[in-house]
Amino acid sequence: MNKKIDQLAADNIRALAISMVEKANSGHPGGPMGGADYMHILYSEFFKYDPSDMRWPFRDRFFMDAGHLSPLMYAQYNLLGNYSKSDLQNFRQWGSVTPGHPEVDVNRGVENTSGPLGQGHTMGVGAAIAAKFLQARFGNWMNHKVYGFISDGGVQEEISQGAGRIAGHLGLSNFIMFFDSNDVQLSTKTDEVTSEDTAMKYKAWGWKVVTIDGHNHEEIRKALKEANAETDKPTLIIGKTIMGKGCVTATGEMYEGHTELHGKPIGDTGADFVKTLENLGANPKDEFAIYEDVAKVYKDIIKKKIQDAQEKKQEIAAWRKENEALATKLDNFLAGKLPELDFESIDYKAGLATRAASANVLGYLAGKVENMIVSSADLSNSDKTDGFLNKTHSLQKGDFTGSFLQSGVAELTMAAIANGIALHGGVIPVVATFFVFSDYMKPAIRLSAIQELPVKFVWTHDAFRVGEDGPTHQPVEQEAQIRLLEKLKNHSGNSSFVALRPADSAETVVGWKMLLENNTVPSGLILSRQGIKDIPATGTSRYQDALAAEKGGYLVQKTANADITLLANGSEVATLIEASKLLLDKKGLKVNIASVMSEGLFRNQSKAYQDSVILKDKPVFGLTAGLPINLEALAGPNGKVFGLEHFGYSAPATVLDDKFGFTGEKVYDQIVDFLGK
């Protein structure tokens, strides 16, 4: 491509980007003007995909971190035919496919939802891990690249440390990231908030770092060639760019590099919108047009990409013919198809902590679910994901044949990486830590829910019974926070999360079954540190009884003409069973006990089923180790819920149970008081 066309294409992207923002009277025009040169060179010459088959699994992927630069993406993809002129004209409007921050839309080339800075490129790291994982199992023909795009804000977000450390440590040579370094952020220049040497930081993490003029097409081209040739390290291309590149005033003077160009329409700044369009070679009377020469060139680019993809598909077809069994396995991975699993065969001792029961399940799954990556935030021997690790080994630089990712102490990074693994496809991500540290993960959990990603979360040490570790490690309000997502609908109209707190080992096994079979939304297990008495079987086996938990809630104890329904999940179900014996022996009361592992799933059942579990014409008493609000909606206006309404204290778990009122005898007293007996 000649220099004139390259410049025209980049300027066309700039003109389209500022026109979107101007028409919407909202958005960020300056950054897209700076990143236009890189995007044009990347997509016209390096990015490999099939425009006629956008979901082709072996395409390159682009992960935007700076979601406020959505006009840059939409303008570039408009040149590639992914968006129409009217799509751009409806930027940020109701019902448009061009929202203010990019939302997953693979058919149009948008691989991830972005906006919360730092998470986008971290998801890219996750996608690169998934690609390396699959390549180790199916061959080096699977050599697609993952490209990230980050801004000054994304570099500053703390999550970038975790992403940078892990990508460098693992030697993710398939990950190439462009840093749009324009020294300007939303309200300040960067020198007002940082004096770090970003290049040295990434080099220290084990990255290849190249610094270029982000507007020099030859330097961009050279950097991308070097990055694609790199076999040992991830690459950071630091592109020194100019905020609002190409902006001019009403008198034609250059007006570039100003902070105000970051976050409001060009016409609301010292620059002039019409004059800037003219400076970029656009027609102010048709500002959403693709330049004639650019349209011709991009028509050829699209044709060439389809041809190149067909050649790659032929290579893959030849591999498939020679490796039929592997090809079938790969297809199953990509389709999310599970192998045959016999969950009922999983053995466990009596009275286990549910984290220990989970370890048994993970030990069973290791080697059977071959496309599962389990990760822990430096807690594998405590959250018991070592049940899986003991059957495999950790991912390492140069060796992705293992299935365990040692994330280190970086819960948010780990969760965002899991989102990227899920977005890539073909790999099932599982992440684990203590439940109290779900607080560190919330931003990524929220993006899991928004993107409808079936990430599996494992949270242990679920309540104040962590004991001696004290209030900093004792979850109280965390369950209420997670269960809010069960009440929040995603854009498909479903509960955006499934939270499961099992009452014993059998429910833990069923919970894992539910996690693996759920391929539509994120889900999590909330597990105990301490041992729990197993719930007595009422049918053919405790496992068969526990399968009813797939409805979210069910009766673990049922009596005819019950006087009261007792309600709980997790450890507290066994406590209610103890209390129910006292109620029968001392007061002659007949008791139903409901285990509601997931309020969200339970609420999705028919009203008749819900009423059969929680009798509406009889008193209801709920018990929770978290905030009472966890169960209050289920108990109803005439029910009572006893929970914890304060932070914990440092003491042995049995002492805390007694002090806080969570023994069978003290719960019995509370129920008697509630009933006025």
Would you give an account of this structure?
The strands form three sheets. Strands 7-6-8-9-11-10 form a six-stranded parallel β-sheet, with helices on both faces. The longest helix is centred in the middle third of the chain and has 31 residues, at 292-322. The model has no long low-confidence stretch (mean pLDDT 97). By secondary structure, the protein is α/β, with parallel strands linked by helices.
How many strands in all?
Answer: 16
Shape: elongated
Helix content: 40-55%
Parts with pLDDT < 50 across at least 5 consecutive residues: none
Alpha carbon gap, first and last residue: 87 Å
Average pLDDT: 97
How much of the polypeptide forms β-strand, as a percent range? 5-15%
Describe the strand arrangement of the main beta sheet, using strand numbers: 7-6-8-9-11-10
Count up the helices.
25
The largest β sheet comes out as: 6 strands, parallel
**What gyration radius follows from the Cα positions, in whole Å?**
28 Å
Task: Report the structural category.
Answer: alpha/beta
Core attributes:
16 strands; single chain; 5-stranded parallel beta sheet; 43% helix; 677 residues; alpha/beta; 6-stranded parallel beta sheet
The gist of it:
This protein has 25 helices and 16 strands.
Topology:
Layout: H1 3-24, H2 30-46, E1 61-64, H3 70-79, H4 85-89, H5 119-138, E2 146-151, H6 152-156, H7 159-170, E3 175-181, H8 198-204, E4 208-213, H9 217-229, E5 235-240, H10 273-279, H11 292-322, H12 324-335, H13 354-365, E6 372-376, H14 386-389, E7 404-406, H15 411-424, E8 428-434, H16 438-451, E9 456-460, H17 478-487, E10 498-500, H18 505-517, E11 523-526, H19 542-546, E12 553-557, E13 564-568, H20 572-587, E14 591-596, H21 599-603, H22 607-613, E15 620-623, H23 629-635, E16 640-642, H24 653-660, H25 664-675
Parallel strand pairs: 1-2, 2-3, 3-5, 4-5, 6-7, 6-8, 8-9, 9-11, 10-11, 13-14, 13-15, 15-16
Antiparallel strand pairs: 12-14
Helix pairs in contact: 1-2, 1-3, 2-3, 2-9, 5-7, 5-15, 7-15, 13-18, 15-16, 20-25
